[in-house]
Amino acid sequence: QVQLVESGGGLVQPGQSLTLSCSASGTVFGISVMGWYRQAPGKQRDFVARIPNGGSTIYADSVKGRFTISRDNAKNTVTLQMNSLKPEDTAVYFCYAWSLRFAKPFWGQGTQVTVSS
What we know:
Blueprint: E1 2-7, E2 10-12, E3 18-26, E4 31-39, E5 45-51, E6 58-59, E7 67-72, E8 77-82, E9 91-99, E10 104-107, E11 111-115
C-alpha cells in the first residue's frame, strides 16, 4: 500500500501564502500521478492540481497563476505552493497518488487551510 501524510496547513489572511507538503511511503514504486484535491464544508471534493511522473502540470482554473505544484521523486514528496490566497480557498486539502502497482489512487488524511481576516 501507499501512505500519504500532508503537512503545512493553517490559518492565513487573504493575500498571504502557504505551502503544503505531502510525503509518500510504503510501496512508492509505480506511483505515476500525484496531486491535490480540496473539499470545502458542505461541498464535494474538487480537483486542484496534478503533476505526472514526467510531464506537464495541470491546474484547476480557480488556482491558475496563484498555485504551483512541484514534485521530488527522490524524496517521494509533492508540494503545493499557494500564493495570493483568497477566502474561497478555505478547505481541507487532500494529497493523492495514483499507483500503477495497485491500479488505484491513495489519499492522505487531509490538512485544513483557512483563509480569513
